[in-house]
Amino acid sequence: MKISTVTATIALFIMILIVGAFLTLLVFVIRALLKYLRTKDVQEEKRIVKKSLGETLKEYRTKCKMTQEFVAESIGVSRQAVSKWEQGVSDPSTTNLLALAKLYGVSAEELLKNVE
User: Fold this and answer.
1) What does the buried/exposed string (b/e) look like for 49-72 if buried means 16 or more CB atoms within 10 Å of the residue's CB?
2) Is 61 helix (H, G, I), strand (E, B) or coil?
3) Are residues 81 and 99 in the same domain?
């Protein structure tokens, strides 16, 4: 009876050590990932990938070889409104965003995909 109690105690102790080692390893991995994500290179890459809605709208307009005037006339707004959207001064309404997506031949989701 004593031998099985000692064996059970040793087995329990070993299991506690294994769980402790696993948790310690998990903490180190999480810390390393957080440190990596906070590095300057990763943050710069995120900044490049993420764009403002205005930058995205201008990119699609220029890709389609359209002027602000043409876009404005096509969706029924002023050229100044298109300019303000592209500069980030204001955002288009949902209706205008859908009209822009249709004009550029993409989905509204595509326009918003990489927006900050």
Assistant:
1) eebebbbbbbebbeeeebebeebb
2) helix
3) yes
